[in-house]
Each structure stands twice: as C-alpha cells, then as structure tokens.
C-alpha cells in the first residue's frame, strides 16, 4: 500500500489517500471521496458504477470514423493542422499539471495562438479583484484551525470539492475549533437549495440576478452604515453573521461566472477588505479543477496578467478578460478539459460546419475526443506520471507516479508538437 498519496480529483488535492496497487493497476483507494475515486479507478465522475473508457492508442478521424494510428503518424497529422492554422486556440489546461501547462504556453507562443483557460470567466476576474484590493490568501489548514465563520457564495462543495467540508471548512476540527461545526457559523447564498445548504444556517436563497443587490445591501449596512434602498431577504442575517466573525472565509463557486462575474468579485473583494480591517478574512474561488490555480500562477508569472494571452496579436501579445469568440478560431488544441461538455449544441455545430480541426490530449474518451481529428491518449498525472500542481490556496505539491504505463505524459506530447513548429523540446 502506498500512503499519503495526493488526489487530483479537485483543487483540494487531498494528500492522505492510501492506494493499493497490484502490478500496473490500482485496485483499492482509501480516504477518497466518490468524486476522487474516478481518477484512480476509471469510473464516471457522477456515476461511480459506470466505467470510463480509457484511451490507449492515438487516433485520427477520417470521413467521420476514428482509426488507431502510431504516435509518429498522429504527430504528423497534428502537424498539418498546426502549420495550416491562422487563428489557433489552445483551450482548457485547468486539469493539467504545471509542467504540461508550461509546455502548452510554450506551444501557444510558438504557434502564435491564443491560450484560453477553461474557467477564464470564473477565475480571471477573481485575480483581477485580488490584485486591485491587495487581498492575501490563507492556508486551508489555518482556516481549519481558526475560522469560526464560513460563507459559501454560489458554491456547493459537496458537489465540486466533496472533502473540503470535512478537511477544512465545516466539520473539521482544528487547534481552535475542536468541536468542528459546533464552533462555526456556516452560511450559504445560492439560487437553489443545494446539498451544502442543508447544514448552512442561514441559507439565503436568492432569485437569479439578485446577487449584486444582496452584495450592495451588505456593503450599505456594513461599510457605509446605512439602510440600503432595497433589501434582499436574508441581508440582515448575513450582516449579523459577518459582523460577529472573529476569523472567516468566503468560498465562491463557479456559478458566479454565469452572472456579472467581474462586478460580483469586485463587490465581494470590497466586502472582504472591510472585514479585514476588523478580523482576518479571506476570499477564495472553490476551484473544482485540480490545477486551475497553477495555471493562473503561470500566466501571472509569464505574461503579467491572469487573462487569456493571445500570441497572434499584431502587437505580439495581448491578454483578454472575456471568453473567445469561437467564430474567430480556425484550429483548436484541447488539453485538460472536455470542451464540448461545456459548449452549447449550436456552438459545437458551428465549429463542425466550419470544419475547425481539433487536436485533443486526454487520458479518457469524452465528448471532445469523439469529435476530434487527432487524439493523443496521455498518462494520468499523479498516478501514471509525476507532475506538480497548486492546491486551491496556492500551495504547490508534487504528484507522484504510482504505476507504469506505456502512454506518454501530456507535457511530452505538447513538447513534441512544439518541435514540429521548430521549438525546443522544452523540459
Ligand atoms: S475532495 Fe477532491 S482532492 Fe479530496 S478526495 Fe475528493 S476529489 Fe480528491
């Protein structure tokens, strides 16, 4: 049995798993949630009894049918797409390790492509607000030990990061929170009652579009000390909860990206700045993809911006806060994401009608691999190959290799693709 294994099921990167391997197979995993187990024993994320189809050989699609081909032949096919593209896009990356993200960024630069994180609309405005207000991060262990107030805003950790509530935010027992949930006030704001809402008091159910109004009400009461002109039901309960906190954290879910994300992050950051003048308070996105944070660290380090870098811009590099206009894209490389799972049927159809060629790197068959021209199967990071990832609070961790596979790691495939364009093999 291998102890203290890190799970790449979500941004919690839980580091206490016990994994039993037999030869080149994982046969048992302990201390893992149902969500994480599908990474180790190939089952579907939302249906743990259904198997996920592993990709074992590179594929090329001709006349709508997929054929297995050799790795070199797949590189050759992908090379034609790389060389012919005029407005290419590298998409996804939030479920790649950091070495793969670095390799993808090098490839995007060499390909003069735009690089679009799969959760750009959610995370980029968070980093923007973080920088504008100079907010700091708190290690999750410190939240476990000290936080007596937790607010989930449009977030359902039971669904996106299942062990977050038992390891850090709700039921966990820390140095100064020995009685776990009994020592904490847990609240949630959402547009419908989620599994998380069941243990949140208060749970503030709002109508879609009321988030900003609720935030304005909180700001009016807490920051400006006055009654807001209009008050969303539950505002006063939240005001009481926040003003009684002695150490708190707000975790925000991906749902905010379906609304006015920039204004919401700005309002939440302003609120947290004010709370911080009284007690320690932090603001976090609840990253469900395991290395979303690593990607934004990389973008900030390499381009100075959390936005989507475009290396094909006339100026050499421009960065975009808003999602790509798919009509402008003429070739796609997808890695660390299942793009077609998030796209509307109309968008998928439009790409198909324009015959936009797609190259995909993925360990498993998914909706995007089913439509791709070239598919590269890759080794699973943290199970079949070593990698590095950043936990949702920015802690870098080393992922280990537990079993062997003949499949290549994604960073190597990306480096080989870059070489076709005349790049170095990276590293
Ligand atoms: S909470 Fe996330 S990291 Fe932890 S075991 Fe579940 S899926 Fe894995």
Structure write-up:
With 427 residues, this protein is of the alpha/beta class. It folds into two domains: 59-119 and 290-383 and 406-420, Rossmann fold (3-Layer(aba) Sandwich), CATH 3.40.50.740; 122-285, Dimethylsulfoxide Reductase, domain 2, CATH 3.40.228.10. Helices cover 33% and strands 20% of the residues. It is built from 14 helices and 19 strands. It has helices spanning 34-40, 71-84, 98-111, 120-133, 140-146, 157-160, 164-169, 211-224, 235-244, 261-276, 292-303, 339-342, 345-353, 410-420; strands at 2-5, 17-22, 25-30, 59-62, 65-68, 88-92, 114-117, 149-153, 185-190, 203-205, 248-252, 281-285, 308-310, 318-320, 331-335, 358-362, 374-377, 387-390, 396-399. It has a seven-stranded mixed beta sheet, covered by helices on one side. The chain has a five-stranded parallel beta sheet with strand order 10-9-8-11-12. Strands 1-2-3 form a three-stranded antiparallel beta sheet, with no helix packed on it. α3 (98-111) packs parallel to α14. The longest helix has 16 residues, at 261-276. It starts with a strand and ends in a 7-residue tail after the last helix. The mean pLDDT is 91. Residues 7, 9-10, 12-14, 32-33, 35-36, 161-163 line the site of iron/sulfur cluster. Residues 7, 9-10, 12-14, 32-33, 35-36, 161-163 line the site of iron/sulfur cluster (SF4).
């Amino acid at each position: 049995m291998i102890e203290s294994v890190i799970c790449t099921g979500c941004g919690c990167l839980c580091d206490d798993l016990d994994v039993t391997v037999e030869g080149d197979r994982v046969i048992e995993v302990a201390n893992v949630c149902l969500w994480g187990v599908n990474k180790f024993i190939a089952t579907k994320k939302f249906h743990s009894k259904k198997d996920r189809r592993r990709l074992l050989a590179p594929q090329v699609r001709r006349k709508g049918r997929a054929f297995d081909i050799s790795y070199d032949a797949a590189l050759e096919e992908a090379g034609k797409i790389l060389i012919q593209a005029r407005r290419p896009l590298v998409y996804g990356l939030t479920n790649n390790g950091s070495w793969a993200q670095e390799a993808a960024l090098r490839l995007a630069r060499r390909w003069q492509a735009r690089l679009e994180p799969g959760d750009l609309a959610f995370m980029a405005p968070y980093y923007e607000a973080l920088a504008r207000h100079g907010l700091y991060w708190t290690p999750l262990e410190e939240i476990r030990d000290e936080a007596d107030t937790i607010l989930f805003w449009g977030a359902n950790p039971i669904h996106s990061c299942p062990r977050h509530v038992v390891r850090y935010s709700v039921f966990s027992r820390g140095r100064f929170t020995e009685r776990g949930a009994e020592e904490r006030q847990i609240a949630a704001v959402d547009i419908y009652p989620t599994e998380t809402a069941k243990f949140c008091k208060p749970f503030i159910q709002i109508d879609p579009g009321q988030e900003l109004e609720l935030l304005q009400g909180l700001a009016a009461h807490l920051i400006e000390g006055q009654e807001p002109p209009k008050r969303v039901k539950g505002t006063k309960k939240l005001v009481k909860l926040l003003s009684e906190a002695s150490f708190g954290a707000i975790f925000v879910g991906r749902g905010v990206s379906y609304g006015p994300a920039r204004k919401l992050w700005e309002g939440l950051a302003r609120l947290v700045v004010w709370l911080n003048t009284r007690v320690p308070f932090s603001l976090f996105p609840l990253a469900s993809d395991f290395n979303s944070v690593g990607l934004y660290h990389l973008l900030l380090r390499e381009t100075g911006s959390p936005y989507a870098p475009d290396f094909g811009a006339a100026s050499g590099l421009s960065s975009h806060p808003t999602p790509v206009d798919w009509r402008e894209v003429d070739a796609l490389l997808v890695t660390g994401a299942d793009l077609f799972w998030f796209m509307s049927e109309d968008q998928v159809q439009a790409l198909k009608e324009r015959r936009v060629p797609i190259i995909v790197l993925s360990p498993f068959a998914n909706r995007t691999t089913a439509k791709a021209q070239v598919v590269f199967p890759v080794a699973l990071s943290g199970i079949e190959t070593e990698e590095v990832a950043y936990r949702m609070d920015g802690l870098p961790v080393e992922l280990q290799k537990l079993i062997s596979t003949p499949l290549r790691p994604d960073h190597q495939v990306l480096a080989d693709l870059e070489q076709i364009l005349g790049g170095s093999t990276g590293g």
